[in-house]
Specification:
The chain is an all-alpha fold. Helix content is 80%, strand content 0%.
């Protein structure tokens, strides 16, 4: 553990993250097509992406901790084989109920990317851990951005089933390639599965920094989701009146966050995670302040998107890195806790963003995001103060 990781291994993990995380998002551009294919309403067909993400959240809680108990390479292979097989099955179902059930099951097993983050942290040398983690995590962001574009393109030119056939085939190939591309790991936890889950709760109960980081992550991703949920409402109305295609181009600005991820990790290696988290928090607050003043200025919106993406990614990577510093033996369980809370925060943020838009349009959303980021900053500063006081007493 911590003996170093080759460039090829890092590249393989990045590519794997890009390809497997897309399984969660391929169905989103297809909802209109699926509604017509299965003769259901738009409201009903929205169950497909919802159940996919619910399955993923449950999988994070129940499967990702296994990375501390079993050999991680085997866990990756099992999860990718299951998710790939279920993706292939999606292409051949003729029942909407079965489509929903398969989508839930695929989301549940599609935890490979979340397993890879603690795997990369354990493989990396301590002085390069932040850089390696940031690079691997950039694959998750790139995959989530690219998935929707790829799905829409393939559906238009080859039919909606083609994307699921592609996803399933790629996952099965990756499951085979993992055997020789990544090294075997040594399990860190000895005990039953029940004891493993119980110990996960123990980490939340006994380690205040875990609770702080998880809550911070939830708040930050919530603000991020509130922004992206309502940006379409802003850009399709006056004075912009942008088409869906033009609005979609703003999503490409999220690539900046992916490019910043390795840089954030490298900065955390040099300056420490606390300094990088502060930088991310200040960027995020500054971005929302700028966005609050830019309801009619496209340049302000563009700059706000760039700075917000940078800030959220920098804070997220450093926040998760400091969680992993707490216990090398429990990194899969720590990842499960953090990512689950991060995911729940994003879901709640989308809902809150819609409420804020209905109450006060763009200024309310921007100021709400600023309040969220300010709360995360206060939470972090309080934690830093408590730990500093405890060190002085000790």
């Amino acid at each position: 553990m911590g003996q170093g990781v080759s460039r090829f291994q890092v590249s393989f993990m990045v590519v794997t993250c890009i390809l497997v995380i897309g399984n969660l998002y391929y169905n989103q551009p297809l909802l209109g097509i699926l509604a017509r294919e299965f003769a259901v309403s738009e409201k009903t067909v929205s169950l497909v992406p919802a159940l996919t993400l619910v399955g993923y959240a449950i999988g994070i809680l129940l499967l990702v901790p296994l990375g501390d108990m079993m050999e991680r390479r085997k866990l990756l292979q099992v999860s990718m084989t299951a998710a790939g097989s279920l993706a292939l099955a999606l292409a051949f179902t003729s029942s909407f109920a079965v489509l929903c059930a398969l989508s839930f099951a695929m989301g549940f097993f599609n935890v490979s990317a979340t397993v890879l983050i603690p795997f990369s942290a354990n493989l990396a040398k301590p002085q390069e851990r932040g850089k390696v983690m940031g690079t691997v995590m950039s694959g998750i962001l790139l995959g989530s951005l690219m998935a929707r574009t790829l799905s829409g393109f393939m559906a238009e030119h080859f039919g909606w089933k083609s994307i699921f056939i592609f996803a399933g085939s790629v996952n099965l190939l990756l499951a085979v390639a993992t055997q020789w591309a990544l090294p075997a790991s040594v399990p860190q936890f000895s005990g039953s599965y029940k004891a493993l889950l119980h110990s996960t709760w123990g980490l939340i109960r006994d380690l205040p920094p875990v609770r702080e980081a998880a809550l911070m992550g939830a708040i930050l991703f919530g603000s991020f989701s509130a922004f992206w949920t309502t940006l379409t409402f802003l850009l399709e109305g006056e004075p912009f009146n942008y088409t869906p295609q033009t609005i979609g181009l703003f999503g490409l600005l999220g690539m900046i966050g992916a490019l910043a991820a390795p840089l954030a990790g490298r900065y955390a290696d040099k300056k420490g995670t606390a300094a990088t988290i502060r930088l991310g928090l200040y960027c995020s607050m500054g971005a929302f302040a700028l966005l609050a003043l830019s309801s009619k200025l496209v340049l302000g919106v563009i700059l706000g998107v760039l700075i917000l993406d940078l800030g959220i990614q920098v804070a997220h990577i450093s926040n998760q890195a400091r969680v992993f510093e707490l216990s090398a033996e429990a990194r899969s369980r720590l990842s499960s806790i953090y990512v689950f809370c991060y995911f729940i925060g994003g879901s709640l943020g989308s809902w809150i963003g819609s409420l804020l838009w209905s109450w006060g349009k763009w200024p309310a959303v921007s100021l709400g995001g600023l309040v969220f980021c300010g709360a995360a900053n206060l939470l972090f500063r309080r934690g830093q103060k408590v730990r500093a006081t405890a060190q002085k007493i000790a």
